[in-house]
Specification:
- The chain is mainly alpha-helical.
- The chain is built from 23 helices and two strands.
- Strand 1 and strand 2 form a beta hairpin.
- Helix 10 packs across helix 13 and helix 15 runs antiparallel to helix 17.
- About 0% of the residues have low confidence.
Length: about 500
């Protein structure tokens, strides 16, 4: 394994984090708060360590998917470890485990919190808390690829993007990977800016609009109000609903629309199923909850908001859906697992994987009727490669293994089944709120430190599509790396 290039990428990530930490410093200065020092100190620490790690140029710049996965997983771990320091230093979250949980929840766009109330926190802390969503939404390494010319080449860069981008497949929109990353971030910034403008137009304060847009864009869900989005106007709730759905769409579709390829964009199977799921779920929730609200339009608004929030794994709320009809809660829990589209900022298993799995089931049933028939599975009008089908099946099996294992560890605390089940579902799918003790009006603060570290792993694993985190924890990888290092040293000595 090419350790030197991984070290250099980690150095770049820390330098980038040091730069990003300047923004909450400026917020603290603008509002005259005393929380400037924690952000400045953390920024300097990141800058010093990042420069030391990235100073030595690696002899070999090429890295493969293995190095891409390890670099990605460690980048997110480093990002979170240093990103939680301002919370600890400022006293906003003095406990390190809680601060790390909150930070990982931010960067992975989960939105699960350990805080009982947030409105008393300094604006600089609230800004950094929401800004972590925006940073993690598109991915820190995608941003790095957009601004830093890594010398590993296109093949190496796409391995980084594959390891970080959510969804079963990642391709190039343009011949150069850096150009692809630039296009993705340009679209990301443009839609975020558009949401801020529309929120401000609805008389939302600028600070609220920016932090809410960060949470929506990253499909994260950290609110700056104790009741999330409930106290804002219906107009603002509708704007957030629309943009949550928009950020759950595969960004390749936006690229195609920008360049006039409307037919290709509208013919993407995953997006059609995504729309069908949203519409049908809203109808079910409306039918089950319309008696709960004062009017039918209010029921439509809350139903649409919660469906959009859960399927895109954002986690904002306008009502305590834990008090809703059992059918409504069942639909929302199922949507937690489905998630948004591949190539979006949303989490979950992804709509495309369920489409592939569903087509596989139907093909298997038809083969029982016509055993000698040969049928190719198609998606977007193209024949699916066997490797895609295999990867989907392996992912689903791995997901269930991690989910069941995590649920067992969390259940050792003795909480009720629904709390255990939905807490793991909410973290591994990067949702935020669950049901019962982790419902939308509650938090994860009551869990033990052990369970919180289980959730931290789940949040990172869910955001990075499981395998990068599992690879980092594989002892065989590090054993082989140590052997290679010893072998190289012996060769140098003999020379």
């Amino acid at each position: 394994m090419n350790v030197s290039i991984i070290r250099r990428i980690l150095g770049y990530v820390l330098i980038l984090e040091a730069v990003l930490l300047i923004l909450p410093c400026l917020v603290a200065l603008y509002y005259g708060e005393g929380e400037v020092e924690p952000f400045v100190i953390t920024s300097l620490i990141c800058l010093a360590i990042g420069a030391a790690m990235g100073l030595k140029r690696p002899k070999d710049n090429v890295f493969y998917l293995k190095e891409g996965c390890v670099a990605t997983a460690l980048s997110w771990v480093f990002l979170s470890l240093f990103g939680c320091l301002p919370f600890v230093m400022s006293g906003a979250i003095p406990n390190f485990t809680d601060a790390l949980f909150e930070t990982v929840s931010g960067f992975t766009t989960t939105g699960a919190s350990i805080l009982n109330e947030v409105e008393s926190l300094p604006k600089s802390v609230l800004f950094w808390r929401s800004f972590t969503h925006w940073i993690g939404g598109m991915g820190i390494l995608v941003f790095l690829l957009a601004i830093v010319p890594l010398s590993g080449g296109t093949g190496s860069n796409i391995n980084l993007m594959k390891a970080e981008s959510p969804g079963p497949s990642v391709g190039k929109l343009r011949p150069k990977m850096r150009t692809t990353a630039s296009y993705l971030y340009a679209i990301y910034v443009a839609i975020t800016a558009l949401e801020i403008i529309m929120l401000v137009a609805g008389k939302m304060p600028l600070f609220d609009a920016v932090t809410t847009a960060f949470g929506t864009a990253g499909t994260g869900g950290f609110g700056i109000k104790n009741d999330s989005i409930a106290s804002y106007s219906p107009y603002i709730q509708w704007v957030v609903t629309v943009f949550m759905i928009a950020f759950g769409v595969n960004f390749n579709a936006y690229f195609l629309l920008i360049f006039g390829q409307f037919k290709r964009a509208l013919s993407i199977d995953e997006i059609r199923w995504y729309a069908v799921l949203i519409f049908s779920s809203i109808c079910i929730l409306f039918a089950a909850t319309y008696k709960t609200f004062y009017s039918g339009w209010e029921a439509v608004r809350h139903s649409a908001f919660q469906v959009a929030s859960i399927i895109t794994t954002t986690g904002f709320s306008t009502a305590d859906f834990d008090m809703w009809h059992g059918a409504s809660k069942t639909v929302l829990v199922l949507l937690m697992f489905v998630g948004a589209c591949a190539g979006s900022t949303g989490g979950g298993i992804k709509v495309s994987r369920f489409v592939v799995a569903g087509k596989g089931v139907l093909r298997e049933i038809r083969s029982y009727v016509h055993p000698k028939s040969v049928e190719n599975m198609k998606m977007d009008g193209k024949v699916l490669d066997k490797s895609v089908i295999k990867a989907t099946n392996i992912y689903l099996i791995t997901f269930m293994f991690v989910f069941v294992t995590s649920m067992f560890f969390v259940s050792l605390e003795g909480h009720d089944l629904l709390t255990n089940f939905t807490s793991v579902a909410a973290t591994i799918n990067n949702i935020g709120p669950g049901l019962e003790m982790v419902g939308p009006t509650k938090n994860f603060g009551f869990f033990s430190a052990f369970s919180k570290y289980v959730f931290i792993f789940d949040m990172l694993a869910g955001r990075l599509e499981l395998f990068p985190m599992l690879l980092v924890l594989n002892p065989v990888l590090w054993k082989d790396t140590v052997k290679q290092s010893i072998k190289k040293r012996k060769i140098k000595k003999s020379i």
